[in-house]
Amino acid sequence: MRIGEIAALVGVTPRAVRHYHHLGLLPEPARLANGYREYGIRDAVLLARVRRLTELGLGLDEVRDVLADDEGRELVDVLEELDADLARQEAVIRGRRARLAGLLGEARAGRLTAEGPVSPELAALLAGVGELPDSPMAVKDREILALLDTVVPEEERARLMGLMHEVAGSAGDVYGLLDALADAPADDPRVEGAAAALAGALPDGIGSFEPPAEGAGGLADVFFAELAPAQAAAVRRALALVSERSGEGGRRGGE
Known about the structure:
By secondary structure, this protein is an all-alpha fold. It has helices at 3-10, 14-23, 41-55, 60-68, 73-108, 120-129, 136-151, 154-168, 171-179, 190-201, 219-225, 229-254.
């Protein structure tokens, strides 16, 4: 058989056969006087085995190891490892499909948010908030929550979203105060009032999320760069007020 014939017989391409020769998976057969390879039944059997092993998901290096072990012990080890890897992939796929089924249900019911897909915790939070108020600050708030939903570790994310549930009901008036600072400098006299209102809406637990220092880099700088100077000052002051309030409450509780 010529290379095209053995490739067609086994169901691979001539290019694959040449690649297997190059990697040493398939020995070079004898050549005819004209230089063409001449394949026999043993070559076809070996090529078919290479095809079956690759279809199982083995890499070509693993196939080489299997073919090099005459007693087949390596094949058992490799197949057991492959089976365990496929089981892990199945578990991941099942989890993704379950998540996708939930998202499809939300989408078909018209409840999938513009920020989606998001975690179940954030989806529940946004569903509880309802329609966005006509507020640029509210839009930024939802955008930063969607970003936090992705970058914050899962256990911390669940705690943060739980805390934000306590804020959702009283955020409307605060958004208005912060929107009014959109063109104001950091020393605007309205900053203190907006900060006090925001601090009043924030739960004590939010104080454990330390306000990052200016220039620290990362998410904090991205968030504050989106705010006007007076808005950034109000948010930082509010976080400081909550932290002070939480500390004083903890001290009184321990006395």
